[in-house]
Amino acid sequence: MAINPDQDEHRYRRYAKVYLQDDADLPPEEQLPILQKKLRNKWIHFAVNVVIILFFTYIFLNDAATLHRYFYYAIFGVFLLNIWMVLMQQRHLNELIRYVERESGFR
Fold first, then answer.
1. Kindly report the CA angle at 86 between 80 and 88, in degrees rounded to 5?
2. Domain spans of the chain?
3. Which of 10, 27, 28, 29 has the highest count of CB atoms within 10 angstroms of its CB?
């Protein structure tokens, strides 16, 4: 994405520091399973958020609760923002996994 390869390297190191924390110093062969597990967890997080939005949408459309509509708007906004953030984290994890695979010689 970035034009300068040094910027890419810096970005990947930053991702590793954020997502691997103490495990960033491990060899790439040990980092991959950790990153793949984190990516799976992000998919679960995404699915839970979608289910919550569907649940509140059902309640809102069927007037199952007597909550004000602005409450629903706020809930939808928070969970949509959360979904966007999870998708960004998934993108970062995918980039980091590809980088670690490339650096370790996998694939």
1. 105
2. 5-104
3. 28
- Taking the C-alpha atoms of residue 17 and residue 28, their distance in angstroms, rounded to an integer, is 14
Q: How far is CA 25 from CA 49, 79, 80, 86, in A?
A: 32, 34, 34, 25
The model's pLDDT over 2-16, given as tens digits with 9 standing for 90+, comes to 567 778 888 888 998
pLDDT 10s digits, 22-46: 888 888 888 999 999 999 999 999 9
**How many residues appear in the chain?**
107
Alpha-carbon distance 93 to 107, whole Å?
17
**What is the C-alpha separation between 51 and 60, in angstroms, rounded?**
14
Output 47-56 pairs: Cβ under 8 A, ≥24 positions apart.
Answer: 49/79, 49/82, 49/83, 49/86, 50/83, 52/79, 53/79, 53/80, 53/83
How many whole angstroms separate alpha carbon 86 and alpha carbon 56?
A: 19
